[in-house]
Amino acid sequence: MAGGKIKRERPSQKGGAAAASKGFQGGIPFHKSKGQHILKNPLLVDSIVQKAGIKSTDVILEIGSGTGNLTKKLLEAGKSVVAIEIDPRMVLELQRRFQGTPFSNQLKVIQGDVLKCDLPYFDICVANIPYQISSPLTFKLLSHRPLFRCAVIMFQREFAMRLVAQPGDTLYCRLSVNTQLLARVNHLLKVGRNNFRPPPKVDSSVVRIEPRKPLPPVNFKEWDGLVRICFNRKNKTLGSLFRQKTVLSILEKNYKTLQALQLTPKGFSDDAEMSSCVSALGDTLGDLNMDSEEGINDDEMETEMDDGDNKTSGFKDKVLGILKQGGFEEKRSSKLSQGDFMHLLSLFNQAGIHFS
Length: 356
Known about the structure:
The chain is an alpha/beta fold and 356 residues long. 38% of the residues lie in helices and 15% in strands. It has 13 helices and 11 strands. Helix 2 (42-52) runs parallel beside helix 3 (69-77) and helix 5 packs antiparallel against helix 11 (271-280).
């Protein structure tokens, strides 16, 4: 649908119930490996459209339109729909379905990979997406300019719960922090796997994402550098994390370089640079494996800096002094709020320590 390459598959010669069970609609076999799971429950489609709060003047972006079940409801609710669909078979089905109807002039279909396409202007995004593109798509949308009003998207349930997780929740991770920095995120409804044809192996959830306007006054490169360190082991104390040799080495190198050049990281020169930095917040965020802590044993952790190492002990004391100043030394990333991370970043920056 919206992401990945499409393999050519030979249609099954079996018909009737056998074809339906393998994911056929209108003679089109679905590619489960590419996330093609068509929403078949009309009541659920109506509920999603209703919760999206679509206005009659809205231009709606739909990603992975499939055979057009959701598309039809979106056309009825808004001014127009721009549908991005990678599968040429589905594109033809969409065009056939709406050709000669009152909706034909309201629908524009773009064939291509949404992660590689330049997104058009839109007011609202409503989509049932292939789950393997969840992370990059979320941050591509949030980096889009001009900002849209909201996005209502169907995600794999665990990914959705990571998006909305709060400090202290088991699923709270770097994805949670970065997404909530840029947007207000709310869980709308849980969707069982039997609402799809063919049914996926997992349940889903619909999430509403509203970009923050204006964006928080934070350097996103610096923010991402700090948060990556903090969530390397989210249940370790910050004092332990910032005692690691690699962390201290990188921060000290940045510190000495900026001091020597008498520089400080600058803000964004234009919207394009800002959008690029926002999009980068989603880099390497595997859809369901957001934290490197998972699966790592304590004895695999990098050794801490020895207090007797005079070469870097002065800088280490400086870093730990900042943590103590803000009361962060014994705190854990898994319990820190957005405000906590912003405060910690400001303390480091005020001391001349930067993360980009």
